[in-house]
């Protein structure tokens, strides 16, 4: 006789769940104990086992659909058995279809497309509104093309300086090929995101969205305007380059980071205004290509968010490539002199003029929210930044915001992490974003990476800490790679020995920092790192050595 299979209660607090995968299809033979499907409920998940044997006659709850505990999810019985009386009434099915949550994501960058995929996984009907290209600034005009440029620069630099490892060469820079490869990398990854969105059933609308009210968005497309009504919205519009009131900053020689990634030829000279991450990375790439680079920074040193002992290593490497660094210096004006510009700077009341073919302006970014008409939806902002809590909720119940448009840490991986949380919460879960595991990375040569407390921050906050430092001069793999000028530093609480932060300068720093983030995530102590065997020879061994140093027992330091 045909029987109903119901959704089990996986925990005492579980009331409903979302089916995320079926292991059988209708007509398959089911045995007692077979895993039928996976279900997700809030932050937990599990699998449902069959307590019956027979043919799977009908699936009542499909992948992505929600069901209450005890609700029928399938019918099992004998082959060709009549089970029509067990099927829910048609009107109940129609009502169920009506309740499928619609989620619209405004912006298809690293936060937006991740949010869209996660919402689709949880059963939402998802639409992404993107005015340009999926992947956003990061993939098209930021992280990825910059790192492609830096990789070419590193290979070129290694080829030029390969004599000490037995590689005698006279490399020739083909800047056109460098840009072609950069574009090919970007296209491949953009195509990949399109494929992911399609595979997850996400609808993409090319256009610019703005709110009409809290449930309606108007989209301007190449074919006119249309309106979308949605249950939930996730705003992921990113950021745009800041502007600065400098005389002549609109001169034709002035470019922003997007312009620096689309030059037709490598400039002979370049002034970089701003010594933050973008400015320093661009200076690293172009100085390696042979451009005479001058970095002008108003603050006392570059990369003020990093400890000074870290930035000192990077500054030494940049200057070794012939770049000049001017700190505590402000830009007074930029004058158009035809093929070149003259940049007037001032330090301690003394003015100086620098001639350059290009002037790269990298003075930060601001939230991209001006065109959203946020007032129509009643969304609160502060200086263009959308106000959100740790659950990525705005003050409007059904609207979430993530990434750069919230004015927080403007990094792609932050936007992606927040995108997952926003999607989960939009679908009725309770997911909190925790920033403590968020790493900061600078792709200089050598690389720099930091997560959690730096030593300077720990001192400033009066935290009782111990610092374990291990020089990469004592690490075999780093010596092999000519990357022995860096170090790994671990900040730990002096009493509990819990890891508070980690900083790395050297080869593969941006890859290795994930170990520090994991340590913070699980509240690990230095003993946990010490007790973890690290492969030899690898740069990652230096992490364990730094943990040993924090406990006063470094082996190789």
3D architecture notes:
- By secondary structure, the chain is an alpha/beta fold.
- It has four domains: 3-97, RNA polymerase II/Efflux pump adaptor protein, barrel-sandwich hybrid domain (OB fold (Dihydrolipoamide Acetyltransferase, E2P), Beta Barrel); 102-241 and 366-436, FAD/NAD(P)-binding domain (3-Layer(bba) Sandwich), CATH 3.50.50.60; 254-362, FAD/NAD(P)-binding domain, CATH 3.50.50.60; 446-550, Enolase-like, domain 1.
- The protein is built from 15 helices and 33 strands.
- It has a five-stranded parallel β-sheet with strand order 11-10-9-15-28, covered by helices on one side.
- A hairpin with a 2-residue loop joins strand 4 and strand 5.
- The protein is globular and about 90 Å long.
- Mean pLDDT is 92; it is low at 94-98.
Topology of helices and strands:
Blueprint: E1 3-6, E2 16-22, E3 29-30, E4 35-41, E5 44-49, E6 54-59, E7 66-68, E8 72-77, H1 90-98, E9 102-106, H2 112-121, E10 125-130, H3 136-141, H4 143-160, H5 175-199, E11 203-206, E12 208-213, E13 216-221, E14 224-229, E15 232-235, E16 239-241, E17 254-255, H6 257-260, E18 269-273, H7 277-289, E19 292-296, H8 308-320, E20 324-326, E21 330-336, E22 341-347, E23 350-356, E24 358-361, E25 365-367, H9 374-377, E26 381-382, E27 385-386, E28 399-401, H10 412-426, E29 440-442, E30 447-452, H11 455-460, E31 465-471, H12 476-480, E32 487-493, E33 499-506, H13 509-521, H14 526-530, H15 541-550
Parallel strand pairs: 9-10, 9-15, 10-11, 15-28, 17-24, 18-19, 18-24, 19-20
Antiparallel strand pairs: 1-8, 2-4, 2-7, 3-6, 4-5, 6-8, 12-13, 13-14, 16-25, 21-22, 22-23, 26-27, 29-30, 30-33, 31-32, 32-33
Helix pairs in contact: 2-10, 4-5, 4-7
């Amino acid at each position: 006789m045909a029987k109903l299979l119901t959704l089990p209660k996986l925990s005492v607090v579980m009331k409903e769940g979302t089916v995320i995968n079926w292991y059988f299809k209708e007509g398959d033979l089911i045995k007692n104990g077979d895993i039928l499907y996976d279900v997700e409920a809030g932050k937990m998940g599990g699998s449902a086992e069959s307590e019956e044997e027979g043919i799977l006659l009908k699936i009542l709850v499909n992948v992505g659909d929600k069901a209450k505990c005890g609700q029928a999810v399938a019918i099992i019985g004998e082959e060709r058995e009549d089970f029509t009386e067990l099927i829910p009434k048609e009107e109940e099915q129609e009502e169920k279809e009506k309740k499928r949550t619609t989620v619209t994501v405004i912006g298809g960058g690293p936060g937006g497309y991740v949010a869209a995929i996660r919402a689709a996984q949880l059963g939402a009907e998802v639409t992404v509104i993107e005015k340009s290209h999926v992947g956003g600034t990061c993939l098209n005009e930021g992280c990825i093309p910059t790192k492609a440029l830096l990789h070419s620069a590193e290979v070129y630099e290694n080829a030029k300086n390969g004599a000490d490892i037995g590689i005698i060469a006279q490399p020739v820079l083909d800047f056109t090929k460098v840009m072609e490869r950069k574009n090919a990398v970007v296209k491949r990854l953009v195509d990949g995101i399109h494929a992911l969105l399609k595979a997850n059933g996400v609808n993409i609308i090319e256009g610019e969205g703005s709110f009409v009210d809290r449930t309606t968005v108007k989209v301007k497309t190449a074919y006119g305007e249309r309106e979308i009504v949605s249950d939930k919205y996730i705003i992921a519009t990113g950021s745009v380059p800041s502007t600065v009131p400098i005389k002549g900053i609109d001169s034709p020689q002035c470019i922003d980071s997007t312009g620096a990634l689309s030059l037709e030829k490598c400039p002979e000279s370049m002034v970089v205004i701003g010594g933050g991450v973008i400015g320093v990375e661009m200076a690293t790439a172009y100085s390696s290509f042979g451009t005479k680079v001058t970095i002008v920074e108003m603050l006392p040193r570059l990369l003020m968010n990093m400890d000074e002992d870290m930035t000192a290593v990077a500054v030494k490497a940049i200057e070794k490539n012939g770049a000049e660094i001017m700190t505590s210096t402000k830009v007074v004006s930029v004058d158009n002199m035809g093929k070149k510009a003259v940049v007037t700077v001032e330090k301690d009341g003394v003015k100086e003029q620098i001639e350059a073919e290009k002037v790269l302006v990298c003075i930060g970014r601001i939230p991209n929210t001006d065109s959203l008409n946020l007032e129509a939806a009643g969304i609160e902002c502060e200086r263009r930044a959308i106000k959100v809590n740790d659950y990525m909720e705005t003050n409007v119940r059904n609207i979430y915001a993530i990434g750069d448009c919230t004015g927080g840490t403007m990094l792609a991986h932050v936007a992606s992490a927040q995108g997952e949380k926003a999607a989960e919460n939009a679908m009725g879960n309770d997911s909190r974003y925790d920033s403590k595991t968020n790493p900061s990375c600078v792709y200089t040569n050598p690389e720099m990476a930091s997560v959690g407390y730096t030593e300077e921050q720990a001192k400033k906050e009066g935290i009782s800490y111990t610092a374990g430092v291990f020089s990469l001069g004592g690490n075999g793999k780093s010596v092999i790679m000519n990357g022995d000028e860096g170090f790994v530093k671990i900040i730990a609480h002096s009493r509990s020995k819990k890891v508070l932060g980690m900083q790395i300068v050297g080869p593969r720093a941006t890859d290795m920092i994930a170990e520090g983030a994991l340590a913070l995530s699980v509240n690990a102590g230095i003993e946990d790192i010490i007790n973890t065997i690290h492969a030899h020879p690898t740069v990652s061994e230096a992490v364990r050595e730094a943990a040993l140093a924090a406990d006063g027992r470094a082996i190789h330091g």
